[in-house]
Design a protein that fits this description.
Number of domains: 1
Number of strands: 11
Distance between the termini: 22 Å
Number of helices: 11
Strand order of the largest sheet: 9-8-7-6-5-2-1-11-10
Oligomer: single chain
Order of helices and strands: HEHEEEHEHEHEHEHEEHHHEH
Largest sheet: 9 strands, parallel
CATH class: Alpha Beta
Helix content: 25-40%
């Protein structure tokens, strides 16, 4: 079932969903199940599965030439989606990214997902490789999420890359990312909104936001979307703070602000155990306010560690 159908069927009730990371290469899918199992009592209608492109570095060989060596890889998004749907009988939402893929590889992945009965995809540009500093697309791939969205929409119309006639039409419900505090590469919030509306006009049916810690930022973002004719469901993405280093890592990596009240409470913490308790309570209060405002879904970034999100969900659902 499509994400938008789940939202319509809920008739105003806020749904619970979450995102997991594929295990690193060589780890078992049982690690994923162990992260999902504790959260199934809250009846998520869908579960997001991220995709992380490979990262690499260049090592100097004895002959002086450079050899590219893969340093990290999280394979298996398509397979994990199939495993989730088979084991839990809920919808899986794979993330489809631009980085590291050419158009044919993207088409093949989408065909596989269609064969598996996956109804939803979240299309994203993806992050830059750390060693490159800025996003560099595959020479035969997409530079922007809007281009990737266009390819999915063409498949939904039965238009394949090397085919001149209409083939089987896919029927993906496509979500896109939204940034309540502006994408860090956008020159202004206005331009960021322009490109978001372009994706909605291009066929995207819902938005999932980047994490935020100040609900006011989310509400202002929703208002701005509505003012600009963006009327699709806007799902808030939430991440509980659990360690002291999150105070510096989250603003640096995800370009989000931490409210002064939250920072003041975290400054009082002596260790990560205390930080986790503050983070859980903050996320619970955030979630309650969002539920009272009638958000369609509360979507949690678990990093495949479910115990903290379980405590939050127990207070809400």
């Amino acid at each position: 079932m499509k994400v938008t159908e789940h939202i319509r069927n809920a008739k105003g009730k806020t749904l619970f969903s979450f995102e997991i990371l594929p295990p690193v290469k060589g780890e078992s899918v049982q690690n994923i199940f162990a992260a999902i199992d504790p959260l199934m009592e809250f009846k998520p209608p869908f579960i997001d599965v991220t995709y992380h492109r490979e990262e690499y570095m260049y090592k100097k060989r004895e002959n002086g030439l450079l050899e590219r060596v893969t340093t990290r890889k999280r394979p298996g998004t398509v397979g994990i989606c199939a495993a989730i749907m088979n084991k839990y009988h809920v919808d899986a939402v794979p993330h489809i990214i631009c980085g590291g893929f050419n158009k044919e590889e993207t088409e093949n992945a989408l065909i596989d997902l269609d064969f598996l009965g996956v109804d939803n995809v979240l299309v994203l540009r993806g992050d830059a490789i750390k060693s490159e500093g800025r996003f560099v697309p595959d020479p035969e791939g997409h530079s922007y999420a809007s281009e990737l969205l266009e390819q999915v929409m063409e498949l939904n119309q039965g238009k394949y890359i090397h085919e001149e006639v209409t083939r089987n039409k896919t029927n993906f419900c496509v979500g896109v990312a939204g940034y309540p505090e502006k994408h860090f590469e956008a020159p202004s919030l206005r331009s960021d909104m322009k490109y978001l509306k372009q994706k909605i006009d291009g066929g995207a049916e819902y938005i999932v936001t980047q994490m935020f810690f100040d609900n006011k930022k989310y509400f202002e973002f929703v208002d701005k979307c509505r003012e600009n004719g963006v009327n699709v469901p806007i799902v808030p993405g939430l991440k509980p703070i659990t360690t002291l280093n999150h105070m510096s890592i989250l603003p640096s990596v995800f370009h989000v602000d931490l409210p002064d009240d939250l920072v003041d409470e975290l400054d009082k913490c002596k260790d990560n155990a205390a930080v986790k308790e503050v983070g859980i309570e903050w996320a619970i209060q955030q979630s309650k306010e969002l539920m009272e405002a009638g958000v369609p879904v509360l979507h949690y970034y678990t990093m495949s560690k479910s115990h903290v999100v379980k405590r939050i969900a127990e207070a809400l659902f």
